[in-house]
C-alpha cells in the first residue's frame, strides 16, 4: 500500500458538470505569480516616472526628499519610499504620508534581497514577499534604478508595500483538485510495523455512526465532516455557521437523537458531491479502516462543497483526493492489489 500511495493520479472528469470549485485552476504558486505580474504593471510605471523626475537632483538629499514627499501621495498603497546611493546606502529619510522618519537614513541596504541581481538585468524589480524585520509583517519592496541623462547608474528609489493594503487583483483562489500526499511524523512511520490497530468504540458501532454522519451531511446542513475512528470523535461544520466547528464525542455519535439539534434543510446548491455519493464515501472509510491491521485509516473527512476527501493513515501519512476519484479506484487499488 505505501507504494500505491506514492503514485500521482491524473485528474478524472468532474463528477458534477459545471461545478466551479472543480474546474481546472492554477496552482497556488501560479496564482501568486499572476498577482505579482498585475502589481508590477500597477507599480512599475509610477516608479519609473518617480526616478525620471528625481534624477536631476539626485546629488541633493533635501531636493530628493522633497520630490519623494510630493510624489508619495500618488502611490496609494505605499507605506514609505526611500532613495539609495549606487552602493545601496540610504541617504534620505524614509518618506511617509505622515512625515519623515530619519531613523533609516544611513542604513546599508546593499545586502537586501530586493537589490540582488537588479543592475544589469532590469531597471525595475518587485521583490518576493518577505517578513519585515521591524514590523514583522508580510511586505513587498519595489526598486527602481535611477540613471542620469547619459544612462549611468546614480542610485535607486525603493518603495515598501504592506501586503494587507495592496489591492486584490485576482479572483478568489481555489485550490487545485489533484491528489496530494503529505508525509507525517517520521517517528510514527519508523515504528509502523510495531503497531496494530486497536478496536475503538466507533469501530464497534459503525452501523450507527456512519449513517448518522451521512444524515447530518445529506439532510442537516453539514458541509464538512471528519470522523476520527481511532480517537472516537467527529468534527462537523455547518452551512448556517461555517466559522465554528462542532465536536461530537462517542456518546453523541451513538445517539441518533442528536439530529434534532440540527435543523433539516435542503441539500445545498453549492455542493459538488452528489447526495447519493456521501454514503459510498463513508462506506469506503469503513473498508479502509478494516482492510489491514497495520496500515489502516485513522480518520477520514469529506467536504461536499469542494469535493475533497482527506485520509489519514496509521503511518501518519495524509492524502487529499476527490471523492469520485476515491470511489473510482476502489479498495483494491488502495490496499495494493492492483
Molecular structure report:
The chain is α+β, with helices and mostly antiparallel strands. It folds into two domains: 28-165, PAS domain (Beta-Lactamase), CATH 3.30.450.20; 175-334, no CATH class. The protein contains nine helices and 14 strands. It has helices spanning 2-5, 28-54, 61-71, 186-190, 201-204, 206-219, 250-253, 278-290, 323-334, and strands spanning 78-84, 94-96, 99-101, 124-126, 130-131, 138-147, 153-162, 180-182, 222-228, 233-238, 241-249, 297-303, 308-313, 318-322. The strands form three sheets. It has a seven-stranded antiparallel sheet with strand order 8-14-13-12-9-10-11. Strands 1, 4, 5, 6 and 7 form a five-stranded antiparallel sheet that branches. Strands 2-3 form a two-stranded antiparallel ribbon. Helix 8 runs parallel beside helix 9 (323-334). The longest helix is centred in the N-terminal third of the chain and has 27 residues, at 28-54.
Short description:
By secondary structure, this protein is α+β, with helices and mostly antiparallel strands. It has nine helices and 14 strands. It has two domains: 28-165, Beta-Lactamase, CATH 3.30.450.20; 175-334, no CATH class.
Number of helices: 9
**How much strand content do the residues show?**
15-25%
Write down the overall geometry.
elongated
Strand order of the largest sheet: 8-14-13-12-9-10-11
Give the class from helix and strand content and strand pairing: alpha+beta
Radius of gyration: 28 Å
Q: Give the total of beta strands.
A: 14
Question: What's the mean pLDDT score?
Answer: 83
Which percent bin holds the helix content?
25-40%
Q: Gap between N and C termini, in Å?
A: 10 Å
The parts where pLDDT drops under 50 for at least 5 residues are: 1-24
Task: Report the major sheet.
Answer: 7 strands, antiparallel
SSE ordering: HHHEEEEEEEEHHHEEEHHEEEH
In the residues, how many domains can be counted?
2
